[in-house]
Amino acid sequence: MAIILFDDSAHLSLLPLTYTRPVADLRIGILTIAEKWARHLDTTFSFQTQPHLQTKFALKKGVDDLYINGSVCPDEGLTEAITQLKTGEALKQGDFLIAAKADPAADFTTIVDYSPFLTASNIPKIFLARTILSCAAILR
Length: 140
Description:
This protein is an alpha/beta fold. It is built from 4 helices and 10 strands. The chain starts with a strand and ends with a helix.
């Protein structure tokens, strides 16, 4: 299983930071969002991003891929919910697609509603996420 971190409309609200990289390649603290997912799920990752970035940030598809929204930051509860997805299932909050065990453009047989989670959907939220994650690390 490989993780494919996909960009949604968050890349527009994170400009100019996302001119040169996918949303999941932005740093929140010492690690990027992609590196955080790789550590939580203990696997490799690739990006499904804007066409002008796709040559540098290659998409590597495999068998039984897990698509995760690149703006969503991992936590233990979300990681557990995502690992329990079966093929054809998606994890959403309202209309916001968090993760899917198939191509995110496909129709899903089952949609599981999930909340709350932390997302980096605009520049102020990136700095807020750093603060929240730092405080959470101190409190553990």
